[in-house]
Amino acid sequence: MTAGSSPHFRTCPLCEATCGLQVEVADGVVTRIRGDLDDVFSKGYLCPKGSTLKALHDDPDRIRTPLHKVDGEFRPISWSEALALLDERLRPIVVEHGPDSVGVYSGNPWSHNYETIIYTSMLYGAVGKNRFAAATVDQRPREIVSSVHFGVRTAFPVPDIDRTDLLVLLGSDPIESNGSLATAPDWPGRMAAIRERGGRVIVIDPRRSKTADVADEHIPLVPGTDAALLAGVANVLFADGLVAPGATGEHVDGLAEAAAALAPFTPESVAPWCGVAASRIRSLAHEIAAAPSAAVHGRLGTCLQDLATLSAWLLDVVNIATGNLDRPGGVMFARPAALGLNTSGRPGVGAGSDYGLVRSRVRDLPGAFQQLPAVCMAEEIETPGEGQVRALITIAGNPVLSVPDGARLARALDSLDFIVAVDIYLNETTRHADLILPAPSALQRSHYDVAYYQFSVRNIANYSPPILPLAADEVPEWRTLLAITGILQGQGRDVDVDAMDDGLAALFAQVAVADEHGPVHGRGAGELLDALHPLRGPERILDLALRTGPYGDAFGTRPGGLSLALLRDHPHGIDLGALVPRIPEMLRTPTGRIDLATPAFVGDLDRLRQRLTEPHPPLVLIGRRHLRSNNSWQHNITTLVKGKERCTLLVHPDDAARRGLLNGNRAVVTSAVASLVVPVEVTDRMLPGVVSLPHGWGHDLPGTALTVASAHAGVNANLLAGTDAVDPLSGNPHLNGVPVELTPAPPSEEEQP
Ligand SMILES: Nc1nc2c(c(=O)[nH]1)N[C@H]1C(S)=C(S)[C@@H](COP(=O)(O)OP(=O)(O)OC[C@H]3O[C@@H](n4cnc5c(=O)[nH]c(N)nc54)[C@H](O)[C@@H]3O)O[C@H]1N2
Ligand SMILES: Nc1nc2c(c(=O)[nH]1)N[C@H]1C(S)=C(S)[C@@H](COP(=O)(O)OP(=O)(O)OC[C@H]3O[C@@H](n4cnc5c(=O)[nH]c(N)nc54)[C@H](O)[C@@H]3O)O[C@H]1N2
Ligand code: SF4
Ligand SMILES: [Mo]
């Protein structure tokens, strides 16, 4: 620490790992950011992105005032002008064309911010069904299966990596990504610890990733074939009498039906299609069954594919059949301290899933959790008729780079009557907006990881107060979301945000006192609200949620329990312990049971059977992540993008040789939708027939203000993908396995002699 500076402690909001940061501030300026050695969860670990919160805050391209597009040019306007504009332009659309005419797209940073999570709930009530989210180009298949099997979307079976004897990772690269749907700081250290205590790690991935490098074994497979491999594993478990569901089994129905349905999928029948030897599939099943504990975890690679929902169903079948669901060292459920979806109400039973109750208008794809698949966005904007999207609200999202066929989406966006983007940059998506409303930087807001503690490998509660103040003309993001909501509801430009906030807090308090199984049942909502005084905004809701949550002080009746005040006294967080078995208490299915024979999932084995007869395309494209990147938006930070070019196409030497390509050459990648020119990196890390290009690049579009990123533009991999190739059960796009062709690029102008 430098003289005169004071340390502040803060959870990093950039990825799922929730590392603790120590931020030093002198004279109102951040001087240094490093890992917080005393953080109860991360114990000093951080990645290169964590220390860039200062650079993000200071980035001159970060938007600090509302921007209004007039004649194609963005001009700064005041907040009151911005609200007047919303009233003039957005409100009439909803009045004239109804709630479905206003779409919403929320992106990944939305989920790392409790302000956006809490306050979008009100916005959702002010629009119709055209609510889209980055989750539908991500974990949606897993959420659907969780909601059907366990009753809520966030009931993700979390690999208990700190205690497991065998970790099997499919389609996940936590050494680069720092983990996903398994919140844990320091994956490198935690994975090394598995091996140090005599456990094993197996990575199943078409690419020999950095995670594969630190594993005991890498099993390459053909992209999109995880469901077949898992079906083969499950088949062996049933056929060889390895099924032992243990205590969880008492709450499971449908194992016999699953066994019968999987009987045809012998390892021999799936092996040629997966590109994995039948003997290895067979022995893998035996290893999982024999391990004292095993955690089979499938992530993004298994989600962005044609059979993604089936893969998630099979993951549950394998973990349940081997007794690994809900036992230490297997896959378990977190018990979050605040706003958990299965920590209140009647234990063991609930309303179940809304999966498929709402469907998209044009393509009839299933919605879930009040959202529709983002692959439908372009067609819902383009197709005239009742329910057509005419205006869009984006919140922390960059769909032009994130969803398939961003070129089509960009054209569709230009046809809208009005777009308001709540964002921090003028980028590939927000350049299409009529109005951009800036969010303050992460260092200017408080933080509690409402989302990621729902699937954390330990139960943790950690609150971070804001570190830097807001300038006089800056507005917290939650107030912006409330203002948009109120204006949509007809409150006009003088929308009373404080009254809306009071209303939301009162609603939360009423729900808490009405919960017969909750700790404040029967007390007065007013009493709770008085006790929360003078808190407002997200802190008030958080305090209420913590105090009425599973570890809460229940407003006095459980002394020593959690409250915001207690968390303020523990700036390094509170460790609530390792995961504990939660079945059946955590279930929220209508029957109070886990049904593995849900017809929609079991029935999808027919599609798998069909796929097994179809040849693979000669060359397919998959994605990848890099430690120094974060989806599409941290490319404007020099320390993160400097050095070797990141947006390269990885090509196996055989595939390169066949096409006359050398390392460093430029190649044309062509799909059914588009062609891109990319630099080639020849590497035996790829399975032959598979090439890899990261997503989130393509920063050379006109009209953006990304000085650093545009100098490291790369290409938008998602231009190559069409919106039609989806997993029909979830609407998730099939981005891992896009058929492509590859040819040498003609010499560029500079290269010509
Ligand atoms: N081909 C391919 N495509 C993919 C993937 C892949 O692996 N391959 N991955 C998919 C996945 S997993 C995801 S999650 C999506 C991500 O898809 P998106 O969420 O659409 O994309 P991001 O790049 O995360 O965009 C984040 C946006 O939030 C803004 N932002 C950052 N911080 C804040 C803030 O505090 N407040 C506000 N209001 N805005 C902020 C940024 O400027 C940026 O515009 O992409 C998906 N697309
Ligand atoms: N540094 C960094 N960290 C991040 C992000 C980032 O952009 N950069 N993004 C964050 C987000 S939004 C998310 S969702 C998480 C994702 O985190 P992870 O789930 O770990 O995802 P990826 O790192 O994309 O790894 C996916 C792996 O799947 C492999 N794969 C591709 N196709 C298939 C297939 O068909 N089957 C199998 N078995 N494997 C396949 C790829 O080669 C890749 O190694 O990371 C988060 N963390
Ligand atoms: S691993 Fe994730 S949470 Fe940790 S410092 Fe890096 S970006 Fe932040
Ligand atoms: Mo994601």
Describe the structure.
With 753 residues, this protein is an alpha/beta fold. Among the domains are: 6-58, Phosphorylase Kinase, domain 1 (2-Layer Sandwich), CATH 3.30.200; 159-331 and 591-608, Dimethylsulfoxide Reductase, domain 2 (3-Layer(aba) Sandwich); 617-744, Beta Barrel (Barwin-like endoglucanases), CATH 2.40.40. Strands 5-4-17-16-15-6-7 form a 7-stranded mixed beta sheet, covered by helices on one side. A 4-stranded parallel beta sheet has the order 11-10-9-13. α9 runs parallel beside α14. It is globular and about 65 Å long. One ligand MGD binds at residues 107-109, 113, 134, 137-138, 300, 304, 395-399, 402, 422-425, 427, 439, 477, 623, 631-633, 695-696, 717-718, 735.
What is the 3D shape? globular
CATH class category name of one domain:
Alpha Beta
Largest sheet: 7 strands, mixed
Structural class: alpha/beta
Intertermini distance: 56 Å
Query: What is the H level of CATH, i.e. the homologous superfamily of one domain?
Result: Dimethylsulfoxide Reductase, domain 2
Bound molecules: ligand MGD, iron/sulfur cluster, molybdenum atom
Question: Number of DSSP helices?
Answer: 27
Portion in beta strands: 15-25%
Q: Mean pLDDT across all residues, rounded?
A: 97
Helix content: 25-40%
| Architecture (CATH level 2) name of one domain | 3-Layer(aba) Sandwich
Catalogue the unreliable spans: none
- Please list the strands of the largest sheet in the order they lie side by side: 5-4-17-16-15-6-7
Rg over CA atoms, rounded to whole Å, is: 25 Å
CATH fold assignment of one domain? Dimethylsulfoxide Reductase, domain 2
Strand tally is 29
